[in-house]
Each structure stands twice: as C-alpha cells, then as structure tokens.
Design a protein that fits this description.
The protein has 194 residues and is of the alpha+beta class. Helix content is 65%, strand content 17%. It contains four helices and five strands, in the order E-E-E-E-H-E-H-H-H. The chain has a five-stranded mixed β-sheet. It is elongated. The model has no long low-confidence stretch (mean pLDDT 83).
Length: 194
C-alpha cells in the first residue's frame, strides 16, 4: 500500500480551501484518508498554510510520497529542510544542535520575508484607497462646478424672464386704474336715490 500526502478539496464553487491529508494512493481525491495533517487556503495573500509539523515530518520520514503541490507546501513550511538536516545528523555530518540552529535561522528569514510581503500588500492597498479617494474628490469637485454653472445659468434665465413679468403686472395695474376710473365716472353719472 503506497501512501501519499495530498490535498483534499473543500469549500464552495469558486472559493476553495484544501485539507492536507495522508491517504492511500488508490483512494479518490475527496474520499477516505488515513490522517488529516493540516489546511491550505490559496485565496489569502500570502496563501495560508497550517500544517502539523511533527506529524507531517513523521509521515514523510516513513515514506509517504507528497504530490507536487504538497511538496511545495512542505518545502515552504520547512519540513523538507528539517528532514534533510536530520539525515545529515544520522550520517554524522552535523550535530543535532547545528541542525536546529540552521533550521531556526532559516525560519527567522522566512518569517521576515513573509512580514515584508504583508507590509507591501497593506501599503499597496492603502495607496489604492488613497488614489480612489483622490479620484472621488476630483469627480465631486467637477460635479459641484457643473451644478454651480447650471444654477448660474438658471439665475440668468430667471432674471431675463422677471422683467417681462413685471411689465405684465404694471400693465395689469394700469388697466385696473382705468377700469376703476371708468366705474367712478359711471357712478357719478347715475342719479342718486335721495
């Protein structure tokens, strides 16, 4: 029975995450497995890998063969490096303390690289937000300018229309005065009822 370290797909359509499992090579991809070793989420930036280091190293040393993707994941987590250093200890090329020291320096370098990647991604996100905000401000200013121009045009149109209205009102008042004079004259012509 050949054992493999491979990924088992989970999640929704278009939103996958994976379990890292040890399974028989004849079992289906999402089928029966021997042991679950961890999780892998490729959608985060950087992709998140959460693997049980000791259990995975033990399975790798027992002869479980990782798929290409899982081999990359194990390499990123340092499991392959740790196995390589432990083989050197068995051969007598290194002491256990030297191997542990080399592994710790590698781990610190890896963590500093991950932190720099995260900082760059947050900086780029912040820069994008600033650019969007500046663009929105420019669009808002243009809209305000257009609205102020329209308002000024409407005010000018209203000023042009207002004198005509006043003339009509003045003419109407003159007619009332004429009508009033006409009515008073007719009242004077009428005999009074005394």
């Amino acid at each position: 029975m050949a054992t493999k370290i491979r990924l088992q797909r989970k999640g929704k359509k278009g939103n996958p995450f994976y379990h890292v499992v040890v399974a028989d090579s004849r079992a289906p991809r999402d089928g029966k497995f021997i042991e679950r070793l961890g999780l892998y989420n490729p959608l985060t930036n950087p992709p998140s890998i959460d693997i049980n280091f000791d259990a995975t190293l033990a399975w790798y040393q027992k002869g479980a063969i990782p798929t290409l993707t899982c081999k990359n994941l194990l390499s990123q987590e340092g499991i392959l490096l740790k196995d390589h250093l432990l083989r050197g200890v068995k051969k007598g090329a290194l002491t256990l303390e030297q191997a542990d020291a080399k592994f710790e320096t590698w781990k610190q370098e890896k963590n500093s690289k991950l932190k720099s990647i995260e900082l760059k991604s947050t900086e780029s996100k912040n820069n994008e937000l600033k650019k969007r905000f500046e663009q929105e401000i420019k669009v808002k200013e243009k809209r305000q300018e257009l609205l102020s121009k329209k308002f000024a045009e409407e005010v000018e149109k209203n000023k042009a229309v207002e004198p005509k209205v006043e003339e009509v009102v003045v003419e109407a008042k003159e007619e009332e005065v004429v009508v009033a004079k006409n009515t008073t004259e007719t009242n004077e012509d009428l005999p009074t009822a005394e």
